[in-house]
């Protein structure tokens, strides 16, 4: 009797196994069908070329090489970096490591002497040609160091294939002397004729209100407001061969510009600067309205910081609604003029920073990494991994494959033989799995972050199931 019982047990076990396999297949089929209900959103429509700063190398080594994913910028300062004239040397000591990590450019704080001398962060400029070599406003060096140290930093960066962008404050000045102003009938602090460098002397004729009008688009903090309509201002800022723009570019060897507070003056100013001086440029237009950002970028012929993306990321990640990432952003509207960021020296609101960095470093635009996030606050190894993924895999147009409160999956569609990637972001407290459609049939893929150990193979119809850790991300591409 033992043999029939054993036979019956084996039959029952085999039946259970078949039922289990069949049930799993049904469950997987249901999961795939559920994912197929989501209508894929093809976000961008262009030929797939990566973001390009459009700047040729000013380095004598000529080593600049664009990578498949475009560049990554480092904001190489934060508010109130240590005073004492050491900052240029601090940054110089890091550029080799940054270059090895894949950083393609650095954005420096305003480099010239400002009203508060050795204590100023540079946003109250007095003398655009004093880089820490004149005894002016209480010091010779700026907060960041001397002119020699700045030149050495720029040279060191160029030797590491890194472009250097100057923060330019041209809306307002500070630190001038008092003078009688016939346009106001009062004394104003608008006499800059005695700047130590002797360059760009200016007085009340060069500030609003004056013979050109009462004001322009905006003033800042009560500082004297530069009038860009005045010929003396135009000449010294961007027309003269020895003026600010061309001196910074041709003598100091800056590769581009971050224009401060561009709400304060017309977009035509940046347009004229770019047409006459050249170099990469990005404007700080603090506005979450994509139409405002895009209109300014087109009128200025410049890139612009993607504040729309910044605020959507804040709401999506910290507000636990990743479907908000479907909304409009500058990088979606105009990917070649969008500079994305997670934190900067003025604002630090996003709490889920690694999720935000996984977003901007896999999506289109020109991503920026904040110094303190990289050097102090976050996991540098994880950021380096994301930089490598951006440079190596983040290619082509963008399609959103799935989104809800907790999950977001997007695909970069590849360009010029590069396969692109799929990024999966999970804002929940548990592991998640999802079926998604790739661009690869019958191909083994892997998670290049190492967060998942899966090595799935895509089906003939290019669908595959991937996974993502809690409060984390995974980034998939062909295993090669």
UniProtKB/TrEMBL annotation:
Keywords (A to Z) from UniProt: Carbohydrate metabolism, Glycosidase, Hydrolase, Metal-binding, Signal
Alphabetized InterPro entries for the sequence: A-amylase_thermo (IPR013776), Alpha-amylase_C_pro (IPR015237), Alpha_amylase (IPR006046), GH (IPR017853), GH13_cat_dom (IPR006047), Glyco_hydro_b (IPR013780)
EC number(s) recorded for this UniProt protein: 3.2.1.1
Pfam families named in the record: Alpha-amy_C_pro (PF09154), Alpha-amylase (PF00128)
Cofactors, names only: Ca(2+)
Classification via SUPFAM superfamilies: (Trans)glycosidases (SSF51445)
Domain Glycosyl hydrolase family 13 catalytic: 71-387
Secretion signal span: 1-18
Gene3D superfamilies according to UniProt: Glycosidases, Golgi alpha-mannosidase II
Presence of keyword Heme: no
CDD domains xref list: AmyAc_arch_bac_plant_AmyA
A GO term for molecular function: alpha-amylase activity
Family, similarity comment: Belongs to the glycosyl hydrolase 13 family.
Protein name as annotated: Alpha-amylase
Native source species: Flavobacterium tagetis
């Amino acid at each position: 009797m033992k043999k029939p019982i054993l036979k019956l047990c084996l039959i029952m076990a085999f039946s259970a196994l078949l039922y289990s396999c069949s049930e799993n297949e049904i469950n997987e089929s249901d999961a795939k069908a559920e994912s197929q209900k989501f209508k894929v959103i093809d976000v961008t429509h262009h030929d797939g070329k990566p973001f390009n700063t459009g700047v040729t190398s000013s380095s004598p080594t000529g080593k600049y090489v664009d990578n498949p994913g475009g560049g990554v910028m480092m904001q190489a300062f934060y508010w109130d970096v240590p005073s004492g004239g050491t900052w240029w040397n601090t940054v110089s000591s890091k550029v080799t490591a940054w270059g090895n990590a894949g950083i393609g450019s650095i954005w420096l704080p305003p480099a010239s002497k400002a009203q508060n001398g050795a204590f100023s962060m540079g946003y109250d400029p007095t003398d655009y040609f004093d880089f820490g070599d004149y005894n002016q406003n209480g010091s010779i060096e700026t907060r960041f160091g001397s002119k020699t140290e700045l030149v050495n930093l720029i040279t060191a960066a160029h030797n590491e294939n890194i472009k250097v962008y100057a923060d330019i404050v041209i809306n307002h000045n500070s630190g001038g002397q008092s003078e009688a102003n016939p346009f106001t009938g009062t004394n104003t602090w608008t006499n800059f004729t005695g700047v130590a460098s002797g360059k760009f002397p200016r007085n009340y004729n060069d500030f609003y209100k004056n013979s050109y009008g009462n004001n322009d688009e905006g003033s800042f903090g009560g500082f004297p407001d530069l009038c860009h309509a005045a010929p003396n201002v135009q000449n010294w800022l961007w027309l003269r061969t020895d003026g600010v723009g061309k001196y910074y570019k041709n003598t100091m060897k800056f590769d581009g510009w971050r224009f401060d507070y561009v709400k304060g003056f017309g977009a035509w100013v940046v347009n004229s600067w770019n047409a006459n001086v050249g170099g990469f440029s990005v404007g700080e237009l603090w506005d979450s309205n994509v139409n405002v950002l895009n209109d300014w970028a087109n009128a200025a012929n410049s890139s612009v910081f993607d504040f729309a993306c910044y605020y959507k990321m804040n709401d999506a990640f910290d507000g636990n609604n990743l479907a908000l990432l479907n909304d409009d952003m500058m990088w979606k509207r105009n990917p070649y003029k969008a500079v994305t960021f997670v934190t900067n020296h003025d604002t630090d609101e996003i709490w889920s920073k690694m999720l935000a960095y996984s977003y901007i470093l896999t999506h289109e635009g020109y991503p920026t990494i904040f110094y303190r996030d990289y050097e102090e606050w976050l996991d540098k190894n994880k950021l380096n991994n994301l930089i490598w993924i951006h440079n190596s895999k983040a290619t082509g147009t963008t399609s959103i494959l799935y989104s809800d409160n907790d999950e977001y999956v997007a695909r970069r569609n590849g360009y010029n033989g590069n396969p692109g990637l799929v990024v999966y972001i999970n804002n929940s407290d548990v592991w998640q799995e999802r079926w998604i459609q790739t661009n690869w049939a019958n191909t083994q893929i892997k998670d290049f972050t190492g967060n998942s150990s899966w090595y799935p193979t895509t089906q003939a119809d290019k669908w595959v199931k991937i996974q993502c850790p809690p409060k984390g991300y995974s980034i998939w591409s062909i295993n090669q």
